[in-house]
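Continuing the batch. This is chain 6 of the set; chains 1 through 5 are on the previous pages. Same settings as before, nothing changed between runs. Recording input and output for traceability.
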Amino acid sequence: MRVSTRRPFDPTSPVWRGFWVKLGVGAVPVWLVMAVPNGYGQPLPPPPSRIAPTQITLFLELVVNERASGQVVPVVVRDGHYFVGAAVLQSLHVRTTAGASTLVAVDQIAGVAVQYDSIGQRLKLAVPTDWLPSQELGSGTPSTAFSAQSGTGILLNYDFYASNPERNSAQASLLSEQRVFGGWGSVSNTGVYRAGAQATDKGYVRYDTRWSYSDTERIRSYTAGDLIAAPLSWGSAVRMGGLQVARNFAIRPDLVTYPLPQFLGQAAVPSAVDLFINGYKASSETVQPGPFTLNTIPYINGAGEASVVTTDALGRQVVSTVPFYVANTLLKKDISDYSLALGALRRDYGVQNFAYGPAVASGAYRVGWSDTFTLEGRAEMASSLAVLGVGGVRALGTWGVVNTAWSQSQVRGQSGRQVNLGYQYNGRSFGVGAQHTARSPGYADLANYDGASLQLNRRSTQVSSSLSLGQAGALSAAYFSIEDAVRQRTRLLSLSYSKPLPGNAFLALNLNKAVGQRALSLQVQLTFSLDERSMVGLTTVRDRSSTNSQVHYSRSTRADGGLGWNLAYAGNQNGSSYRQASATWRTSKTQWQAGVYAQGSDSSSWMGATGSVVAMDGGVFAANRINDAFVLVSTNGVAGVPIRYENQLVGRTDAAGHILVPGVPGFYPARVEVDVLELPDHMQLSQSQQRLSVRSGSGALLRFNIEKTLAARITLVDEQGRALPVGWQVEHLQTGQKAVVGWDGLVYLEGLKALNELLVRGPGTTRCRVRFPVVVDAPQVLRIGPLACRSESGEQTAWATFSRHVGVLTQPLYRHE
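Output for chain 6:
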């Protein structure tokens, strides 16, 4: 190729110059015209000088300690520094004293490191962790509060026992409790009726009659009638008739009244925090940068060790291990506990029905002065009696707790005092406890105020300890010393050792020694578990005078009922023997027991029955003994519905749709559910499980709205008997329910009526109708068809024919599954 400049394209143009370009292709030259800018090939002018700007503004997202703030703010870059508004920095906890509208060079703040992320368009700030707000992790409470419920009804508990010792002196007794309950509380009465050969064994003896009500919002219980006034652990409990108002934390299981440890830490970046209590994982939380407090309940009482493991996004871990001690005898700061009782002392309890003594008053108060100290006080008053006492419980860090108390009494012109001192420590493998009480000769309180023959002990001391040896077993020791009012002293030392053995066996040794006497007793017990219900035991007791041996076999009853029995034989080297045999039959309604025992040539037989009867929701129900509360489940008259309580199957509803669940703890938020896996297909319910809390001493009615629905699987065909195509739309005209035709012309519908009509729509304007009757009390899902879907052209004639004959149809086109 040659380029010629001899023929310029336009030599007069100030902008362009043209060239003829000759391309030699073979023998024929080809000329092309090429235009280039004028001045092509001349030297370029020098570039202008570049002037760097003194300030630019970037819009960046701020990131503090690797936590994105989500805020895109203007960042001024000036002289290599990054300026951000002071108000923005303060909202992200970056400390600055500048005014809110002032721009602050964030990289000039002491303790702050800045990194500009040009790819992510972010400005990363690293600040000290103590600048960031503290975080509370964990709720610190075991569960949420549930409002306790109570229905209206009547409960009768009974315990019948009859025996025939020596076959000539039969006697029987019936211990019963009558209880009426409602939203206003419960009224109960307990007593026993005896019948026997001797006159002293006959008649009815009343034990307690009372009304009680618990206020869950105020955490308070009210009692009127027979009650027990128990001021404090270092006071004396007495029976009395009257009124009592007391704090009752048992009605609020969601509250934790004693102080719990708080685990503190800091996270420089977003991290995961795991808490391990004594090597077991207790919780897992996500924490943002900054200091944090971990409030997680350790379900232990005593000493423990906590490990807090902090793991960041890169997998780096920081482990902090701290010891702690939890004492449930303490109260949290500012939490108070109290009891006040007014009435008359009970006399001859269990002997006379209505015997009351002088009027008395008893009160006690406890308050959490701090999380480490609980202040206690008590007072008792009667005619010519006054008792005042003050005490406290103090935590010793991780070394346990110590309790002290001092009481002063004035009775009939004579004064006395009582001093209490104790210590308690519970560790993972070791525990020790000690309590000592000393009284002066003139000390008295309500326990011996109305009974001149009752004298309080002058001194009492008890010390106990336990030691876990791991695989080698466990060892415990105890020492008891009592000095009565006439200075007679009794001391007892006890040593125990226990160890699991191979083959589901267990060994227990117990040594008792009366200090200062020659009395010594050694007991060796070896048990073998044959299965989850059967056990064989061998026991030998050796003292200074004899050796007694016993072998027994027992098989317990199942929780849901069944037969259990017990066989025992004991003898000694003197030739005397003891034989025993008993059986237990437990059902959902009651529990029966019977047995015989013989010693030498004397023998006796006995029998008993325990249970309860409840009248509620228009029905009468029998169940095993109800000591606290119960739940009556109703399924709206649907029988045979399986009911579960706390994941355990308790039975099926009766013919009236009821089932009674006994043995429910009061104020416990229990879960009751319908076992939907065993629920028939033709039954539906909107809520399969419910959680409720029942007031102590009462019962609650829990309803499940189960409805029977008439359902069917229908096969639809066209007028030629071919299954309708998949996807055609079906509408049940009586209920408006819509469905889609499936394979083989099958369609599933619920809520069917005695007379039914279906409108079927196909592609375009294709429509047909199906009419059919069903039996409304069908017990399960029906299979109907095949039914021909006829076009709407013959609709009037077909419907008239169907209406005339529906009353005499005896063989409808359906069958039970």
